[in-house]
Amino acid sequence: MFLSLxxxxxxxxxSRLNLKTYLEEVRNNNPEITAASALSKAxxxxxxxxxxxxxxxxxxxxxxxxxxxxxxxxxxxxxIRKEFRNPYKMYLRKGAxxxxxxxxxxxxxxxxxxxxxxxxxxxxxxxxxxxxxxxxAENLELVKKLSRSAETRYAINQGSxxxxxxxxxxxxxxLNMVITAQQEKETAAARVNxxxxxxxxxxxxxxxAFAVNLATPDYKALEGAVTAHNPYLASMASRLKTSEKKIxxxxxxxxxxxxxxxxxxxxxxxxxxxxxxxxxxxTVPLWFAKQSAMTREARAERDLSSAEYEAARNAVLLExxxxxxxxxxxxxxxxxxxxxxxxxxxxSLKASEAAYQAGKxxxxxxxxxxxxxxxxxxxxxxxxxxCASWLGRLESLTGMxxxxxxxxxAP
Length: 411
Hints:
This protein is of the alpha+beta class. The protein has helices at residues 19-29, 31-44, 46-51, 87-155, 161-195, 219-229, 231-252, 288-357, 363-398; strands at residues 3-4, 57-63, 75-84, 210-212, 258-267, 275-282, 405-407.
């Protein structure tokens, strides 16, 4: 059953704040998403830096010189020297850099998901503020009507003066509710604007109408989706993979690196003129304690990353359980209020109003019935907005589009 969160008919030429468009604005303009994206790009650019070879060294030699700055040199040489990392080390460095880049890329995706979930909550709170203002405005008109009725009955000696005074008190309370709702709407609008990267005081249209159509999702399927697609878990898995590659890289430090050099000679000695030298060198990993310490460090980082991954997995699954419990709770309340409590409260108010007009009940019963209806409407809208907000968190956690909210036609 579709449960509409908007009950007023709006003119067709009035622009509404569309949820899809708003979320796209948040994705493109939110500062936290922009920062996470820039950090991901920075670490992505480090992959090539990790495995590309070092620059060659070019040297110009003046040998057997007897003048200033090498003048009068009997031998002039050009030397090109190039150091080569062990190919296996370069391969491991590339893999470690790619895994580290994957960590920040997944962290960016997690930031996007969580910010969009926060933006959905802000949108629904903004919509809820509009509903509060609307129902309080409707209540104000109703209380005005009841106040006029009480004054009329007092004027024709069918009601008491205390009823007329009580009606004025209720009228003041209803007016204060409208003012409070307007202030809450301004605060909610400021949060919506801040999340999309605009000034909190920027003008903001009324949110579009939406409905909630939520069936209880299969928990096992959600658990599988979280394990497979949650970007936060993916980032922790990338960190664990990086630490494992660092262990291999530490062990590879026992292997040598290489150096190749070439020298071309110009000499006054005809026998040495236009000759060249070629040499190949390699490093000798003499201090084994250093490599051993590097391996122990890498293993400790691997153990840390493994423990952090398990902790993250438990935390995410705990959050999933909390969300599904909350969704089920608010869905049941929505069904109860929408199908039973709200119609009963409306019927009770109509009956109390008719009884008061007929002189069969006092004004306090009428006021109580009106307060009950007002509170029921407020709670119904709050439960609906809360259900939509928790659904947004579930989509953020699982990476799935559950299609639980959609544009609704105003009745």
